């Protein structure tokens, strides 16, 4: 592994490691392989899908988010589509498992 990136880590830049997902900061592995965006950034599929529910931009460079792998992109689009439906139905998007405890 090249250590030339180490110089940048001194300043506290956390995403200097290219083998880690910038969303959860966990490294990639066989169980959690990386997916590559069209802007050439790598994330866990699970992470970028979760991210896509909050933002349509890449968290690294803020370009429009799309994935190189057509299957992954299709999945991402499907999740986004579902979010759009949910949003139009209820107006707001509470997180999964969110409960309203209303004391009357
Ligand atoms: Zn991740
Ligand atoms: Zn990017």
From TrEMBL:
Its EC number is 2.3.2.27. Residues 21-61 form the RING-type domain. Pfam families: zf-RING_2. It comes from the Eukaryota. SMART domains: RING (SM00184). It is an enzyme of class 2 (transferase). GO terms for molecular function: ubiquitin protein ligase activity; ubiquitin-protein transferase activity; zinc ion binding. InterPro entries: Znf_RING, Znf_RING/FYVE/PHD. Keywords: Metal-binding, Transferase, Ubl conjugation pathway, Zinc, Zinc-finger. It catalyses: S-ubiquitinyl-[E2 ubiquitin-conjugating enzyme]-L-cysteine + [acceptor protein]-L-lysine = [E2 ubiquitin-conjugating enzyme]-L-cysteine + N(6)-ubiquitinyl-[acceptor protein]-L-lysine. PROSITE patterns: ZF_RING_2. This is RING-type E3 ubiquitin transferase.
